[in-house]
Write a structure and sequence with these properties.
The protein is an alpha/beta fold. The protein has 3 domains: 3-107 and 181-214 and 241-459, Glycosidases (TIM Barrel, Alpha-Beta Barrel); 112-166, Oligo-1,6-glucosidase, domain 2 (Alpha-Beta Complex); 478-554, Immunoglobulin-like. The chain has 14 helices and 22 strands. The chain has helices at residues 33-38, 40-46, 81-93, 112-119, 181-197, 246-260, 305-318, 337-340, 345-357, 385-390, 396-401, 446-451, 456-469, 471-475; strands spanning 14-17, 50-53, 57-58, 70-74, 97-102, 131-132, 155-158, 163-166, 201-204, 233-234, 237-238, 267-270, 292-293, 326-328, 361-365, 477-480, 490-497, 500-507, 513-516, 524-527, 543-546, 551-554. Helix 9 packs parallel to helix 13. The longest helix has 17 residues, at 181-197. The protein is globular. Bound molecules: 1-deoxynojirimycin (NOJ). 1-deoxynojirimycin (NOJ) is lined by residues 63, 66, 103, 169, 205-206, 271, 332-333. 1-deoxynojirimycin is lined by residues 63, 66, 103, 169, 205-206, 271, 332-333.
């Protein structure tokens, strides 16, 4: 691939909306599509280019939309198909792209397919899910030792047909059986349905678990207690036979081929739990698999220059150009990263600068740009079924250290638009919003951020502008700069394009740093400090001082 063939999706900036929590238009305390339409101008002004929506399809909402009961309808809670068509048109009119969240792996138990499938052994949909006899003798034990990702056996017994069905995630999310060609065909047609409407891409939910071992062999032992992004193992089990199967890798090529049928280009980004070193196989043997895969390592990397240097080098090694890496700090499952930074806005600005200047696609989770943090909720009464599950878990803090939210309610609270009652999230100031609003909403909100030139929000806006104005930040190759002893304190790299070179220096410590002769005739195009003056070329003596936690970009 030559550099001028760079595709739009390789240099886009994605913004994730969790529809329940972005903007409520009806006053019932739950976000919806019309609410999102009201806020498209905000996103346009922010400068993001692609908007990914967590699922808004028909669903009993047991997992808030990741339990789908109809893949081709909008849940009335969020609006109608007319609302969807409107949102799609408005996004396109504003020259932005729309990305849907597709849960190919499973349905809700309330999906008509599953209801049929569960009704009898000879139902025509029986084989659409994974049903098996229990272990002999008696069949009253699950067919094998597989565990669900949040813990506990991955099988549920149905008395009426005396068989067990398999689920990878939660018990009300039965896995579809992709060994059945009808299932595959149906789900590919679902993708076509949305692509024909004009959707520009899909985020593919837990794609690693599409296929499971044909023989359902037992998974081997592992010392891993909880899931991490390093290894697909947890609860003392290595997920050898239920995750990352060769059939799943082959499937990514089929998915890519389907996307290639469409013009202009569309893209796929997969949610997959593999280490950076193993991720490449999902991009396909000839970069003909998924367009991108989420790299989650940043969600739990400590705020240290050397740590990030190491992770970035691993990513560059695993996914050299023309492969496209991704950069994620938070999402609807993970701890909002500003909370891991103890609400230190200067540090958040450093990470934002890094995310928007590395080679690859940044994913910004709604509210990240204003510094929304995690909110405390009781596990036992949490809306999120995972939170309720963890209320019985003996060492919940370990999960948090790995970057996962204990109850995902904590990272899904309503967007903080202004300092009015209910943070301007809903037109009804009295209504109890589906999740409580963070106590800090009077201080942390869009309206306040917009007014302060030195806010995190304005830092994001300036960064996005700089990225859009400078070709090497979109298409340039990446080179780490060795600062010797300073590597411990400062992360430095350049982006190289035939037309331009850009230099990024990030001060990771709470002290001044002196850069000696970093470049000839530096032209400062960005600093995390909004009031940093342009460098006077006549007064430049070869040294540049970075103030505590300051990040700068030169050309
Ligand atoms: C991963 C999604 O990110 C999460 O929110 C969801 O609960 C599970 N997949 C199940 O679909």
């Amino acid at each position: 691939m030559s550099i001028d063939k760079y595709k739009w999706w390789q240099k886009t900036i994605v913004y994730q909306i969790y529809p329940r929590s972005f903007k409520d238009s009806t006053g019932n305390g739950i976000g919806d599509l019309r609410g999102i339409i009201e806020k498209l101008d905000y996103l346009k002004e922010l400068g993001v280019e692609s908007i990914w929506f967590s699922p808004f399809f028909t669903s009993p909402q047991q997992d808030h939309g990741y339990d789908v009961a109809n893949f081709r309808e909008i849940d009335p809670l969020y609006g109608t198909m007319e609302d969807f068509d409107k949102i799609l048109k408005e996004i396109h009119d504003k020259k932005m792209k729309i990305v849907l969240d597709l849960v190919l792996n499973h349905t809700s138990i309330k999906h008509p397919w599953f209801i049929e499938s569960a009704s009898s052994k000879d139902n025509s949909k029986r084989d659409w899910y994974v049903w098996r006899d229990g272990k002999k003798p008696g069949g009253k034990k699950p067919p094998n030792n597989w565990k669900a990702i949040p813990g506990g056996p991955a099988w549920i017994y149905y008395e009426n047909t005396d068989q067990w069905f398999y689920f990878h995630f939660l018990p009300f999310q039965p896995d579809l059986n992709y060994r059945n060609p009808e299932v595959k065909e149906e789900m590919l047609n679902t993708m076509r349905f949305w692509l024909d409407k004009g959707v520009d891409g899909f985020r593919l939910d837990i794609l690693h678990s599409i296929f499971e071992d044909k023989l359902l062999r037992n998974n081997p032992f592992s010392w891993a207690l909880t899931l991490s992004d390093k290894k697909p193992a947890c609860y003392f089990q290595y997920h050898k036979y239920d995750l990352n199967l060769p059939e799943t890798l082959d499937f990514t090529i089929e998915l890519r081929n389907l996307m290639e049928e469409y013009e202009p280009d569309r893209f796929l980004v997969g949610e997959i739990f593999v280490s950076i070193e193993n991720v490449r196989k999902y991009y396909g043997p000839n970069n003909n698999g998924l367009h991108m895969v989420f790299l989650f390592e940043f969600t739990s990397t400590p705020f240290k220059s050397k740590k990030y240097r190491k992770v970035i080098s691993r990513i560059e090694k695993a996914l050299p150009f023309p492969f496209t890496p991704t950069f994620v700090y938070s999402n609807h499952d993970r701890v909002r990263h500003i909370s891991l930074l103890k609400d230190n806005v200067k540090k958040a600005k450093i990470l934002a600068t890094m995310q928007l200047t590395l080679r690859g696609v940044p994913f910004i989770y709604y509210g990240e740009e204003i510094g929304m943090g995690n909110v405390k909720f009781k596990l036992k009464t949490s809306e999120d079924p995972i939170g309720r599950k963890f209320s019985k878990f003996p060492f919940p803090q370990i999960v948090r250290l790995l970057g996962f939210s204990l109850t995902r309610d904590s990272c899904r609270t309503p967007m903080q638009w202004n300092a009015d009652s209910n943070a301007g999230f809903t037109p009804n100031p009295e209504v109890k919003t589906w999740l409580k609003i963070s106590d800090n909403y009077k201080k942390v909100n869009v309206s306040r951020g917009e007014k302060n030139p030195n806010s995190l929000l304005n830092c994001y806006k300036r960064l996005i502008e700089v990225r859009r104005e400078n070709i090497s930040l979109q298409e340039g190759l990446f080179h780490i700069i060795d600062l010797g002893k300073l590597n411990k304190k400062c992360l430095a790299y350049k982006r190289i394009h035939e037309k331009q070179e850009i230099f990024v220096y990030l001060n990771f410590i709470n002290k001044d740093i002196l850069l000696e002769n970093p470049i000839q005739k530096p032209d400062l195009i960005f600093s995390t400090l909004s009031n940093r003056k342009a460098l006077d070329p006549n007064a430049y003596d070869g040294n540049i001082k970075l103030t505590p936690f300051e990040g700068v970009i030169f050309k």
